[in-house]
Amino acid sequence: MKAFCLLILISFSFSANADDEQLRDVMRHLADSLLTLMPIVQNRDFDAEKFELEAQRLHRYVQQAERHFDDQPVSARITYGMLKERIEEASRLSADSSMISARSLLSESLELCASCHAQDRKSRPGFGISRLRELDEFQAAEFSFLSRDYASALTSYKNFLTAEKSDGHRRSLALDRILSITTEIYGDLDAALQVLKEIRLVSESEKIRVTSWQSVFRNLKSQSPLVSPLAPQDIRDMDRFLTNDWPAMQSFMNWNEQQAYWMMIRRKLNTFLENGPSAEETPVLLYWQAGADRSTHFQFYESLSRRYLERCMREYPGHAYARKCFDEFELLMIVSFSGSGGINIPVEVREEINELRRIVYSRD
Question: 228 in helix, strand or coil?
């Protein structure tokens, strides 16, 4: 997804560790921008002048926050690099009065936030309900989620699902957020089962999704921990699980069940990244992070998966997993540029594939 996540990632993910008063000021301003921009990017009618001012202001704050990413995990630095480009593009579009494109760029970002924001799992309530008075229930839930007030987010998502029956897109997003919070962030199967039991479902497809998730969690609670994606204690064990056990397990699962597993897999991968992996371990994690992101948040050519794989190949070309990253990258590009008319990969992308192939295989 696009640039809006950068606002949230900078605003909240590092606030608990921010000792620098200048950064605290930046974060306070970014929180205000989030409250202003969220209704703008989600509603059809919006104040173009207000939007342009907020986009320009956001761009300035993002530039000021850049130096604070130097000591963050590699996944956060990759996300920042990708999203910094997007926020600059949105700022440029708003300055050129291309409001529809700029707004679209920001509105699409919320899905990436579900991917990148869960890399930081520290809950941080404290913005207060009065700050949310201009937001509807779904927007309030999103703000709480993105500002790490997960308990409030769960309450608002459940309230939204109870009150709103017809907005299928938002209902689907609310269910995804509930799954992410309870499994990827909390890592608590009992909490996941309890919340899923409380929510109101209105369609057969929703019932199938939630029933599948519940089945996965109950099975994990009753079966041997060896089949659990939460069981591996180090990167080597996780790599062995994902290489040997996970493909066979997937063949017996529907997509909804796989989604629940992927959320827990991402939790473990993020934990290993937070612990400061070695140069030998980092390419392995980048490869599996790319696979997890592609499986749960695929965003065509410009995606976090692509950025993870590029980092793997360019910074660790001699590592055994560099070639696995290349194979995954080539597949990702083919899928990204495939359609009803066949495969149509642009020349510049083909050149990039050839460049990366030379980098990875030049040692032969």
Answer: coil
Q: Kindly tell me the number of DSSP H helices and DSSP E strands found in the chain.
A: 18, 2
Rounded to whole angstroms, the Cα distance separating 297 from 328 reads 15
Q: How far apart are CA 31 and CA 27, in angstroms?
A: 6
- pLDDT band of residue 18 (cuts 50, 70, 90) is very low
Q: Three-class SS string for 42-80?
A: HCCCCCHHHHHHHHHHHHHHHHHHHHHHCCCCHHHHHHH
Backbone angles phi, psi at 204, to 5 degrees: -65, -40
Give Cα separations from 314 to 80, 188, 286, 326, 357 (angstroms). 18, 36, 12, 10, 10
SS3 of 304, please?
helix
The residue among 24, 26, 46 whose CA lies nearest residue 36 is: 46
**What is the distance between the alpha carbons of residues 178 and 120, in angstroms, rounded to a whole number?**
16
Give the Cα separation of 293 and 300 in Å (integer): 11
Give the C-alpha separation, 54 to 34, whole Å: 9
Task: Give pLDDT tens digits for 100-132.
Answer: 666 665 655 555 554 555 555 555 555 444 456
Compute the distance between CA of residue 75 and CA of residue 333 in angstroms, rounded to an integer. Answer: 21
Q: What is the DSSP annotation of 138-203?
A: HHHHHHHHHTT-HHHHHHHHHHHHHH--S-HHHHHHHHHHHHIIIIIIS--HHHHHHHHHHS---S
- pTM for this one? 0.77
Pull the structure tokens for residue 302.
């410009």
Q: Is 109 helix (H, G, I), strand (E, B) or coil?
A: coil
Query: How many percent of the chain have pLDDT more than 90?
Result: 37
Both tokens assigned to 44: 């059809």
Token pair of 182, please? 């309870």
- Cα(190)–Cα(218) distance, integer angstroms: 9
Does 187 score more than 70 pLDDT? yes
| b/e burial code for range 151-168 (CB count within 10 A of at least 16 → b) | ebbbbbbbbbbeebeeee
The tokens for 101 are 């494109």
- In angstroms, the CA 196 to CA 180 distance is 12
Distance CA 179, CA 320 (A): 34
